[in-house]
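Hello Y.,

Per our agreement to keep a running log of every chain we model this quarter, I'm adding this entry. I've kept the format consistent with earlier entries: sequence first, then predicted structure.
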Amino acid sequence: MITSVQNPLVKSTTKLHQKKYRDQMSSYLVIGEHELGEALKYGKARHLFSIDDTYQKVSPHVMKKMTGGIKSNVLGVFEKPKPKALKEKVLVCENLQDPGNMGTLMRSAVGFGFNDVICIGGVDPYHPKVISSSEGYFSHLNILVLKFEDAVRALDGYHHVLTQPGSVKHSIPQKPLALWLGNEGQGLTQDALGLKGTSWGIQTGTIESLNVAVAGSIIMHALKDV
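Predicted structure for the entry above:
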C-alpha cells in the first residue's frame, strides 16, 4: 500500500491536475467509480488506484491528495487517445469556459450520436472536472483539440449548423454535419458565424437564452435521427 504523498507515482499523478503536465505526459485523470467504469470500456489505463485491494492500494489521505480533494475511493490515470477520422456528426465547442458545460455536452453527444467532438480554445477537454461532468462518457468520444483554421479544414464538406441565441430553426441539414456551440457569454466568434451553413437556435419566452449545455443538448436531440 502506498502511504506517502511523496511517492514518485503519487507526485506524478497529482501533477495531472495541471494542463501542462497532462500535455507533457499525454495522460489524464478519471475520478469516481462510475466514471472509471465507463473509462475502462474504451480508454487505455496507465495506472489504477483504490483505497481497497481492487487496484493499487493507497491510503485515504494519499487518495485525497491525488484527487485534488474530490471525494472518491478510486482514481485512474489514462493515456490520451490518438484522434481518429471524423464521422458524419461532429460537435464543435468554440471557446467554452465552464468544465461542467463541456462535460455535460460530451455526455449528451454520446447519447445523441455525435461521436466526434472538436474543441477550439476554452477549457481543456481533459480537465478532471470535464471528465467528471461527462459521467465518464468522455472516453466514448473521439476528441480533437484544434485551432479554428484547422477545424474548418477538417470539416471541409460538412454542413455547418451555427447556433445563435433567439435565432429560428431552419431546414434540417444533411449529413455530414457539424454543430457549432460558442462561448457561454459571447457565443460563436464572427469567424465561425461567417461559415457557410444554417443558423439554429431555440425560441424561448421570457428569458433571453438557455445555458449552452442545455441548448446544445436540445439541438443534438433534434438532430439525432438525421
